[in-house]
Structure formats: C-alpha cells, structure tokens
Amino acid sequence: MTSAVILVLLMGALAYLRAPVIAWTIAIAGWIASLQFAWGCQVPVAVWAVFGVIAAVLNLTPLRRAVFTGPVFTIFKKITPAMSQTEQEAINAGTVWWDRDLFSGKPDWNRLLSFPDPKLTAEEQAFIDGPTEALCKMIDDWKITHELKDLPPEVWQFIKDQGFLGMIVKKKYGGLEFSNYAHAKVVTKIATRGGTAAVSVMVPNSLGPGELLQHYGTEAQKDYYLPRLAKGVDVPCFALTSPYAGSDAGAIPDFGVVCRGSYTDPRSGQHHENVLGIRVSWEKRWITLAPVATVLGLAFKMYDPDHLLGDKEDIGITCALVPTEHEGVCIGRRHFPGGAAFMNGPTWGKDVFIPLEWIIGGREFAGQGWRMLVECLSVGRCISLPAMSVASGKVASYTTGAYARIRDQFGLSIGKFEGVDEAMARIGGFTYQMEASQDLALTGLDIGEKPSVLSAVLKYHNTERMRKTLNDAMDVHGGKAVVLGPRNYLARAYQAIPIAITVEGANILTRSMIIYGQGAIRCHPFVLREMKAAMANDGVEFDKAITGHINFVISNVFRSLWMGLTGAKFVGSPKGGEVAAYYKQLTRFSSAFALLSDMAMFSLGGSLKFREKLSARLGDMLSNLYIASACLKRFERDGAQKEDLPVLKWAVETALYDLQQAMDGFLANLPSRMLAAVLRKVIFPWGLTLKPASDRTGTQVARSLMELGPTRARLTKGMFVSADETDPVGVLEPALKAMLETEPVEQKLRKLGRDGKFKTITARERLAEALAGGIITQQEFDAVTRARKLKRDVIMVDDFDMKMEHHDAQLLQRLIF
After folding, report:
1. 240 near 300, Cβ under 8 Å?
2. Residue limits of the Acyl-CoA dehydrogenase C-terminal bacterial-type domain (predicted)?
3. Are 278 and 258 in contact (CB under 8 A)?
4. Which residue has the higher pLDDT, 631 or 763?
5. Can you tell me the distance from the alpha carbon of 68 to that of 21, in angstroms, rounded to the nearest whole number?
6. How far is it, in rounded angstroms, from Cα 386 to Cα 451?
7. Which residues of 151-163 are buried (b: 16+ CB within 10 A; e: fewer)?
C-alpha cells in the first residue's frame, strides 16, 4: 500500500513539474527496483521486460516514430481540417506574447512584472499638455453633433497643422513618430471631450494607409505620401467593407483586372498612354473619412486572365492608393452612423483604370493585401476602439461619481443607495479593467510585439465594458442623461455604442470565432507546430511536437487536480499580501484552461471551429485570464497603493468569477458527457468555489468615485476637464468640493427645519433666516449659496424654444431652490 502511494505521489510530482520522458523512465525504474530491494517484493522478469519495451519506445526516437508517432501522424494528416489562404494568413499575422504564457498552464509572473511600464516621453507629454489640451478646448460637442454635423473648419485646420494625423509617421517624413502608448493616450483624451474629433484623429493613424505605407510602401510612395499625410495635406481613408462583405472581409466582391490602358495622374497632371495597370470596379460602404478624403486606400480582388503579369490568374486581395480626384472615383456622400457626426460614407467606381505603381508596395505586393491588412489591423485594434472605450469609462467614472454624490433624493445622496452603489462599482471596476488591459497590450506593441490575439480580446472586451459602463452611467444620471443638449455629456457616447460594437470585426464574430480561433492555434505551445509539420509532411518535427503535447496534457491533468483540491494554496506567487491569492488562482486556472483546450480539440477535432458557443466560452477563459493579469500588473505599476485595493479586488475577482462561469458553461455543453464529468471532477473537485466581488468591495469602489481621493484621480487620469465652471463637466468637481465642504452646515439646517425652528418655507429663505439669527456665519452663508448654485448647474437639463430651438441661457438666472 505504501509503495503504491509512493508511486502515485512520484507520478504526480513528475507530471506537475512537466518532467521529460527520460526522467519518468528513471524514476519508475527506480520505483520498480525499490519494490525488490527495499520492500522485499519479487518483481517478475516479465514486468521488467514490459517496462523495458515501453521505455525503449518512448525514449528511442526511431522506434517511437515507427511504433507510435508515425501512425498517429498518418491519422493526424487525414483529420486536420484544411485551412483557406485567408485563414492561414490571419493565423500567421502578428505575434504571440503574454497570451502564450497564459496558455502555457504555468504563467511566468515575474516575466509579467518585469515588462517595462508604459511611459510618455517629454515630447509626448508636452503634446498632450499642449496641442491636445488646446484641441479639447476648441471642441463644442453639441455644436458639432447637433448643428454643424461636422468639425468646424478651424478645428479641422488645427488638427492638420499640429500633426494629429501623423502621430505614427516617422519624423524623417515630417511626422511625430509617437509611441503606441502616446498615440492611445492622445486619442483617449480627445475622446473624453468629443467622439467626432477623436475618430477623425484616430482613423488616419490606426486604420488609414499610413500604417500600410510605412511597412510595405515603395520608397517613392513613402516619399510622396507620408509627408503629405503627416501635415494633413492629404486626408486618407481606407475602403475595405462592402455592402456584401462585412465581417467576411476576405469575400469582398470588388475586383480589378490587369490590362493596358491610359490615365491622367491628378497629382501631376501628366497623361500616360498604353501602360500596364488594373481596371477596378468597387462599391464600398461605412468608410470613415471617405466623404472628405483626398487619397483612397482601396482593397479589391485582383485577376490577370490574360497572363500579363505571369501564369497566375487569381492574384488575390490587393491594396492600392488612389487619389480621390482620379477620374471615375466617386466620394462625397455620407452616412450618419448612430447619429455621430464624424465623416463616414460610401465610395464607388466602375472600370477605373489605375497603374500598377499605385499598388501599395508596387507590383510585387499584388495579392498580398490580406496579409498586409491583418498584420496592421492587430496594431490598430489595440489602440483605437480600446482607447475610445477607456475614455468612456473615465468620463462615466468622473461624472457619475460626482453626480451621484451631488444629486440627492429622500435627503440622501443617490450614490449611497445600494442599487446605485452597485452600478457605480461596475463603472469603476470595468474602467480599471479596460485601461489596465489596454496599457499592457500597448507595452507589448512598444517593445516590438504585434499581439493579434490580444488585439481581438481588447476590441471585444473593452467595447463591451464601454457599453456596460455607459448603460450604468445613464441609469444613475436618469433624466439628466435623457434630455439632449449642451449639458448632456453622456448621451452622444451612449448613442454611438453600436458603432464600436460593430466595426473592426463585429463583437459577436470576434468573441465566437476570432479570439479562441486564433488563440488556440497561435498561443498553444504545440498545436501550430503539429499543424505545420502535417502541412510540410515533416514526421521528425511532428514527433517532437506530439510527445511534448502529450506530456503537456498529462501535466495539466495533475496540476489542475492538485490545485483544485488545495485551492492553489501551495502555488508560488511573486507578491505577498492580499494579492498573492489572485496570482495563485490565475496559475490554477491557466492549467485548467490549457487542459480544457486540449480536451476540446481532442474530442471535437476540426468541428470545434464550428462550435461557436464552445469556442466563445474558451475565448472568455483566455480573455479573463488576460484581464485579471493586466489588472495585477497595473496595481504594481501604480505603486501597489492601498487605496486602490478595493477596485483591484473588484476587477480581479469579477474576472476570475467570469472565468469560472465560462468553464462551467463549457463543461455543461461539451458533447462528450463522460469526458465533461471527468474534467469537472479534475478541475472543480469541490464545486464552483469562486464568488463574485462582495457587496462590501463594491461599496468601497463606489465611495471612492464619490470622493476627491487618489483612486478617483488615478481612474480618471488623462481625461480632459475644462477649468470653466460653466462647462457641464467642468462644474462637477467644484460642485462636489463645495457640497462636501458645506455638508455639515446643510445637515444643521435640515435638523433645525425638522425641529420646527424656522418661520420661513423655502430653502433660500431659511438660509437667510439662519444668517440673520446668527445660526450661521456670513462665510458659511456664502459657501452654501455657492454650493447650491453649483448643484443646480449640475442637475439642470436643457430646454429649447419651440420655434427657435436655441438654448435658453436664462436658465442659470432662475431662483435657487
């Protein structure tokens, strides 16, 4: 019995440590020998013979390939689903980074904490404090969205003159050459003031031709276009989406046929006869900046039926740069997405002849468009919409925290009601998650990574959290947020939520197909190696990958069971104190996630990619592992401030709980019920033990938003707040400060009123009566008067003349009640 226990413990330890096959062989041989020499058991020769055969098969590569991995390789090649070229290019795009650690089952937390903290250079900080601050002061969002339906000409010119359109362009071409972190923080700050300006700035930097030109453009293209893009001489757009191909961008019907033709170059006015080019026809929709663009980035399928370029007829998706003044290019009409005022519209053309030199990168990059797009998209998707989402979270946190403290009902600040408190906890917690997740990804970008899987995680989860925070902020503000007008600082962002949910890969598609679809192959330590070996018919490489994979699975079974039984109490953590348990739980669930991934692929094979609900839950597991780890990284980056512990706890505990629920849902719906039952016992031997963040923690988060403290300051750092108290956001903090300072006086006045000490009726009259009776001082009278005026400014909404439809400025002169 004792020897059997020793064997179990020995195998468990070897599996937990992911020992190589030779270590297993030596350890088990030693155990068998101990039976005979230490325990006095007679081990039959047959046992040694069987062990010797198995050991030889496992340790001698030629024999292992002949007996085991060779036959497996034959089967694997038959069952591995074929990948289209677009799928292969999407999977090969970008790099894997911290997401690979999370897929490993043994994340290296010291590696996470050693990643450099994102910082702004002096030049970048000066740009944010200078031109970006100035731009925000120029923005009147109500005028832009309600009256002009566009940015004012002077704002457009300022954006161009100050280089906002060339933040990513290298300095040698006249651009600012900012880091990805600085780029994101500029967009975030502008977005806290107005979405139209933010989108107008972010699209040329994240999704425009500039990114493609810098990576793939010819020297002539770079020398001509990049200086013009950097200074706003040219305004770019990129036309990919068509009415018939949205999420399935690879299926665009727009096409170009190689031929000879003539054209006049609108840039130089020169006419060219009988040149080799492409006759392109397209119809695009939902293209941001298309109505005002001067240069059109165009994606189309290219064909060469007459073999003018070579033997290949179907060249593939190609990207070209076309001046919008070129004959046949149609722009100028616009859409109004969600009521937003940023320029967005269609472009179309029929049989428009362009020379081959207009292909981005020249003729040798013909057919390389899809690869170019997916590689660059992984960068833009980490920056643009995630930054807009962070901005919404900051605005929601800043405004809702102040408003909930200032606005009172039933004699109590509404933020102190538990129902409101619950919504505010989500606002603060999700804002912390969003910025932490983006900042970690930006760190990766700035050290040279292109984390395509994490970009999908950010795109989906930040925009979904933006939706939740804005919904909660609208609920807390109530009627204040319902009435449109200059005073309403939430409604326009709320109206625009569907835009972020839809563009750059629809959220439903991103969650159900992209996150795990890419992650399972790219981030897994062995799957991509096995697939590449199968495609290359490389049995040697497959043997190395499959043996490593088997060891990986066995290890994760033992690791998941052990950490489930012990609650991960004996797992190492890079930090002590309250956060240690979080690192330990994430290690536990990293192993469990890796095990579930392998079992899903094992039991479902190629059909897993069509099981979108299961794939979505696996994606949720990976995403929440990332979000929780990013929050822990942020906490340490901020100096592990004690005041921030409640919001960290809410953020991490919510992510861990969501992760557990995704695993529970996956196991409840895995088709192989026997396998699901075994996995449930391994991963959750004591059941679902994790709970969501407690009500007490949520209340602490909510209260931190309503106080002028360091946590509120850190959560809202980087947003624009006007110093003008007549500004609807600028008035909030002065009003909050005034309310907090005069609260004791107001409490005294309310008590006197309840006790029947006043002869007057209205609040204003009673305040004057208290001054006359010596109950309060003149200083207290002045402070309460000011606080009440500021409070009124905060809670009032706009009304309009039914005929003139302009703001009634006399609202501010009404009596203070």
Report:
1. no
2. 521-800
3. yes
4. 631
5. 15
6. 14
7. beeebbebbbebb
**Residue 331 and residue 347: Cα distance in Å, rounded?**
5
Is the pLDDT reported for residue 602 higher than 60?
Answer: yes
What's the whole-model pTM score?
0.93
**How far from the centroid of its chain's Cα atoms is residue 445's Cα?**
13
- Other CB atoms within 10 A of residue 52 CB: 12
Measured distance CA(700)–CA(644) in Å, rounded: 10
Q: Per this entry, what is the length of the chain?
A: 817
Higher pLDDT, 211 or 735: 735
Are residues 51 and 36 in contact, defined by beta-carbon separation less than 8 angstroms?
A: no
Q: Catalytic residue positions?
A: 504
Phi and psi torsions of 319, nearest 5°: -115, 135
Q: Which two three-digit tokens encode residue 196? A: 């139209």
Identity of residue 406: I
Distance of alpha carbon 622 from its chain centroid, rounded? 13
Helices (H), 128-169: 133-138, 141-142, 153-161
In whole angstroms, give the CA distance from residue 545 to residue 805: 70
Is residue 116 within 8 A of residue 447, CB to CB? The reply is yes
Q: Reduce the DSSP state of residue 589 to 3 states and report it.
A: helix
Coil/strand/helix, residue 412: strand
pLDDT value of residue 527: 85
Could you tell me the maximum CA-CA distance found in the chain, to the nearest angstrom? Answer: 109
Structure tokens at 446: 């700035």
- In the structure, what pLDDT confidence band is assigned to residue 178 with cuts at 50, 70 and 90? very high
- Band (pLDDT 50/70/90 cuts) for residue 524 is confident
For residues 356 and 360, what is the distance between their CA atoms, to the nearest angstrom? 9
Rg (CA), the chain: 31
- Confirm if 279 and 259 have CB atoms less than 8 A apart: yes
Fill in the amino acid letter for 72.
V
Contacts of 97 (CB under 8 A, 6+ apart): 444, 449, 451, 454
Alpha-helix residue ranges (DSSP H) falling in 510-579:
515-522, 527-536, 539-566
Q: Which amino acid is at 554?
A: I
Distance (Å, rounded) from C-alpha 425 to C-alpha 421?
6
87, 97, 442, 530 from 522: Cα distances, Å: 12, 10, 19, 12
Q: For 282-293, what is each residue's pLDDT tens digit?
A: 999 999 999 999
Strands 295-303 and 255-264 turn out to be parallel
Calculate helix-pair angle for 418-446, 180-191, nearest 10 degrees.
150
Q: Which two tokens stand for residue 50?
A: 């069987």
Gap between the Cα atoms of 709 and 706, Å rounded? 9
* Cα separation, 711 vs 721, whole angstroms: 17
Residue 213 in contact with residue 225, Cβ under 8 Å? Answer: yes
Distances (CA, A) of 53 to 30, 62, 250, 318, 335: 16, 14, 52, 56, 72
**CB-CB contact of 679 with 596 (8 Å):** yes
Cα distances (Å, whole numbers) of residue 212 to 202, 239, 277, 483, 646: 15, 13, 21, 42, 43
Tell me the helix, strand and coil percentages in the chain, rounded to 5: 65, 10, 25
Tell me the two tokens of residue 454: 């994490």
